[in-house]
Amino acid sequence: MRRLLACALLSAPFAAAWAAAGSYRYDTVHSQVVFSIDHNGYSRPFGRLHIAGGTLRFDPADWSRSSTELDIDLAGLDMGDADWNKAVCKPDLLDCARHPTAHFASTSVERKDDSHGVLHGQLTLRGVTRPVDVPFRLNRHAATIYGMHSVAGFSATAMLDRDAFGVHAFSGSIGHDVSVWLEIEAIADSRAADPSKEQP
User: Fold this and answer.
1) Do residues 106 and 68 make contact, with C-beta atoms less than 8 angstroms apart?
2) Which residues of the chain, if any, have pLDDT below 50?
3) Does domain 2-197 have CATH number 2.40.128.110?
């Protein structure tokens, strides 16, 4: 009985942390961005990107009060081949030297049901900003198995038109629609900035 009481007392602060609205920082180890684009009709190769950093404000009771900002590392992209990485980073494609990161800032969150929603926001890529809608699923929102952190986990998808961001090169061999998948974990952190209060 004492052991159960002790466990309850120890876990109570963590339970309260994930039950209420709070600020989170992205877990860059367990978060990844994968994209795919058509290669002249032969295949749709995949590339992988990492989240460089960002913050999330998540309210499990009222998703409309949630918001996020994050940076995606373009310069560190992985296409599975060093020469291919360099080619995609050249000025006529991602132009990683001048624009090493892409930036996303949410404008609103639309809840569809208990676990699905749509994140509306602005994506800046190669210095061009366009509106983007990101359908997502809330996978889990809970304390970790050891009670050390509160974590919110999401899976999301998006479809981007590369022409909208000024990427027009190789139109005869590279597709124009880019499929994007995101697997995201964010850790509750009271020191993380609230993106809804950040100044532009």
Assistant:
1) yes
2) 1-19, 199-200
3) yes
Q: List C-alpha distances in Å: 118 to 21, 98, 109, 185.
A: 18, 31, 6, 17
* H or E segment and range at residue 170: none
Location of structure tokens 């366009």: 130
Strands (E), 28-127: 32-36, 46-58, 67-78, 101-111, 116-125
For residue 185, count other CB atoms closer than 10 A to its CB: 20
pTM of the model: 0.83
d(CA 64, CA 4): 37
CB atoms within 10 A of CB 174: 17
Percentage above 70 pLDDT, the chain: 86
78-108 per-position pLDDT tens digit: 999 999 999 999 999 999 999 999 999 999 9
Alpha helices in 20-88 (DSSP H): 82-88
